[in-house]
Design goal:
The complex is a heterodimer of chains A (about 350) and B (about 325).
Chain A lengths: L1 H6 L7 H6 L3 H17 L7 E3 L2 E3 L1 H24 L7 H17 L4 H25 L4 H20 L4 E2 L3 H8 L1 E2 L2 E2 H19 L2 H10 L1 H6 L4 H26 L2 E2 L8 H11 L11 H20 L6 H17 L1 H10 L1
Antiparallel strand pairs in A: 1-2, 3-6, 4-5
Chain B lengths: L1 H11 L4 H20 L6 H26 L7 H17 L5 H25 L4 H19 L4 E2 L3 H8 L2 E3 L2 E3 L1 H19 L1 H11 L1 H6 L4 H27 L1 E2 L7 H11 L13 H19 L5 H28 L1
Antiparallel strand pairs in B: 1-4, 2-3
Classes of the chains: A mainly alpha (about 350), B mainly alpha (about 325).
Chain lengths: ~350, ~325
């Protein structure tokens, strides 16, 4: 891995390198979307400074995509080990609920945040145990929490939506630091830490090898079960932070609807970013771009005046297109025709 | 004493063991309900279990075929919603005769499923992601027709929704009859036809099935077509039940169906289980909901927690059983 990243700069500017770069397709898709926005939405790229904060469509998209970017980062690592975590939405609901409940009870904010993250980490450990120790299929193992997690969150709130009024808590989801949304800094920090760990330590290589061939990885002396366990814990931690962001942004915890279908969007973002659902090679940057594509697509559809209901149809067509573009059989079909 | 243990061990390694556990669980749930709440064990409460869950049973039957073949279908809930929507729209705006509407909706569902099957088989895409796309697509198409609920006032649909077929002292809805006929047909297809054997073979090991000369591609497309057909039929039953078409109908039904199939004793890794398990799985889910409704103090979210816990127990039991059978081989 290291040798590849060291060798990369030498070949940077040949067109072939750019075309074959794993991030080429997602970047091209994002650029195409932005081009549509540039042409059809007046003032899309204009930025204004109001009260020392930057405002504009681009900032808005990034800010709204923050929870999805986080969830997609966690999901990438899980998918890289041939896993999947469909309980992300439930974890988002649970962590947001715990935080809002404690803050509404006048608990100090650090304690509330710690408790919310604790709840998320417990979810992750539960998923991790089921997959790594009991060797359940990941989709089934996380289905359990997907079904029960929202139930638990509703049990905590007694089915009510908890509204909070606490300025410091709102900062996580809607605060600004040095002119930029605070949520953006959280995503950047998580991304930087994870990317460094993957590139500078052998962790990235280990995770890839588990995804490419779990048996070979185990025979080579990797502690695959431990690795897989911690990918689920990490994914849950990301979902937990995303839950804090979402609940602080809407200033309430809605156990029923917070993070609904977020797991599916996260999986879509990971796929869009070029990571195969079959595990193995993964791209953190790709997943972030994937999340941005989804959010830009939503924004574009809304601003073009297309009825928002079309959004789901477009999203599904994107899923099919991306899957087919990754399918070797589909490529062969084209080659034969030519 | 030792013979008891030996008998228990022989029982627990029988192929129908997990299915049997579900039936025992169902009986235990019903008896517990009967002991706790007077009137729980009446015939009509039992029949209501079937009436309220007829559409789920039909979906679970289709899902059984998919899961037995080692796949998964996440699109069924959305296809159900789409069929209620298309049916309501064809009746209200296009004024089609109701029988033609039902036929069109069933064809639409089967076609939708078959297309997914084609993508999954011929382009080697993962069933999970293809049917996830199908889930978005079907829901999106609902909203393209209308974002509001469309009422169905067609005389045939209204008659069928109000019809009560007497059964001893109680009554059932036409939906129950359709669901049970569907179940009988599915059991026949799964266990007594070459197609059914091919489904099990693909679920057991796709490569071996291919080498045995089975038509893997055709079978798989047919499996997803069946699942789509069942989802559309469930949509028709659902529109008898609700008398409306709405894009938000039956959200999360795909998970209920998967849960019912797993609780019914079918392994999610494919190739192992019974289509009849769909019935016991659906009835267990229904019994839990009825118990919670009878209790009155427990809130609806307990249903989710209990279903989650049951899923957990069943997955672990299945896991332990399959590791042990591997060790003994």
């Amino acid at each position: 891995m290291n040798t590849r990243s060291l060798a990369a700069p030498a070949a940077t500017f040949t067109p072939g390198f750019i075309m074959n770069h794993p991030l080429f397709k997602p970047m091209a898709a994002l650029m195409a979307l932005l081009l549509v926005d540039l042409i059809f939405i007046p003032g899309f790229f204009s930025l204004e400074v109001k009260e020392g904060h930057l405002y504009g469509a681009v900032i808005d998209i990034i800010n709204r995509a923050a929870p999805l970017m986080l969830a997609a980062l966690g999901m990438t690592v899980v998918i890289a080990t041939r896993g999947i975590d469909i309980s992300v939405g439930a974890q988002v609901a649970l962590s947001g609920t715990v935080a809002c409940m404690l803050i509404a009870d006048n608990t100090s904010m650090p304690v509330a945040l710690a408790a919310a993250m604790g709840a998320a980490l417990l979810c992750g450990a539960w998923n991790g145990l089921l997959v790594a120790a009991l060797k359940l299929q990941p989709i089934v193992a996380t289905l359990i929490l997907m079904v029960a997690g929202r139930g638990l969150a509703q049990l905590l709130t007694d089915g009510q939506i908890i509204t909070v009024y606490y300025k410091q808590y709102f900062f996580i989801g809607s605060g600004y630091l040095l002119g930029l949304p605070f949520a953006l800094y959280i995503v950047a920090a998580v991304f930087a830490v994870v990317a460094l760990m993957m590139k500078k330590t052998a962790l990235g290589l280990f995770i890839q090898s588990v995804g490419i061939n779990p048996v070979a990885a185990r025979l080579a002396g990797l502690r695959t079960a431990t690795l897989i366990f911690f990918t689920y814990v990490f994914c849950a931690a990301c979902a937990g932070v995303a839950g804090l962001m979402i609940s602080s942004n809407i200033k309430s915890a809605d156990a029923n609807n917070a993070g609904l279908l977020l797991e599916l969007d996260a999986i879509l973002a990971v796929t869009l970013g070029g990571t195969s659902l079959a595990g193995g090679k993964f791209s953190l940057a790709g997943s972030v771009i994937g999340a941005l594509i989804i959010q830009t697509l939503t924004y574009t559809i809304y601003s073009l005046g297309v009825p928002p209901e079309v959004n789901m149809v477009v999203k599904s067509l994107v899923v099919f297109a991306v899957c087919l573009s990754q399918s070797a059989e589909f490529k062969n079909l084209w080659k034969r025709r030519k | 004493m030792s013979t008891v243990i030996a008998n228990a061990r022989r029982m627990s390694s029988a192929p129908y063991f997990t299915a049997l556990v579900t039936v025992i669980l169902l009986v235990a749930l019903l008896l517990a309900g009967g002991a706790a709440y007077p009137g729980f064990l009446s015939l009509q409460v039992m029949l209501n279990l079937l009436i309220d869950n007829a559409y789920l049973l039909v979906i679970a039957i289709g899902m059984s075929f998919v899961i037995l073949s080692g796949g998964i279908d996440l699109s069924v809930g959305s296809v159900l919603a789409l069929s209620t929507m298309v049916a309501a729209w064809l009746l209200a705006s296009a004024h089609w005769p109701p029988v033609a509407v039902i036929a069109a909706v069933l064809l639409l569902g089967a076609g939708f499923g078959a297309l997914q099957g084609v993508l999954i088989h011929f382009f080697k895409l993962q069933a999970f992601i293809v049917t996830l796309g199908g889930m978005f697509l079907a829901r999106g198409l609902c909203y393209l027709i209308s974002i509001n609920s469309i009422t169905i006032d067609d005389p045939l649909f209204v008659t069928l929704s109000q019809a009560q077929l007497s059964f001893f002292d109680g009554f059932v809805s036409p939906g129950v009859v359709i669901a049970l006929v569907m179940l009988a047909a599915a059991i026949f297809v799964a266990h007594f036809t070459p197609f059914g054997r091919a489904v099990y073979a693909i679920g057991g090991n796709e490569q071996s099935a291919h080498m045995m000369g089975l038509a893997v591609g055709r079978t798989r497309v047919a499996i997803y077509a069946i699942s789509g057909f069942c989802a559309a039929l469930a949509g028709v039953l659902f529109s008898f039940y609700m008398l409306s078409g709405y894009g938000l109908h039956a959200q999360g039904t795909e998970l209920d169906a998967i849960a019912a199939v797993v609780i019914g004793g079918t392994l999610l890794s494919g190739g192992y289980g019974y289509v009849a398990g769909a019935l016991s799985g659906v009835l267990v889910l229904g019994a839990i909901q009825t118990l919670i409704a009878f209790d009155g103090t427990l809130s609806s979210w307990w249903t989710k927690i209990v279903i989650g816990a049951l899923l957990f127990i069943f997955c672990v039991v299945q896991r332990l059983l399959s590791t042990r059978s591997k060790e003994t081989q």
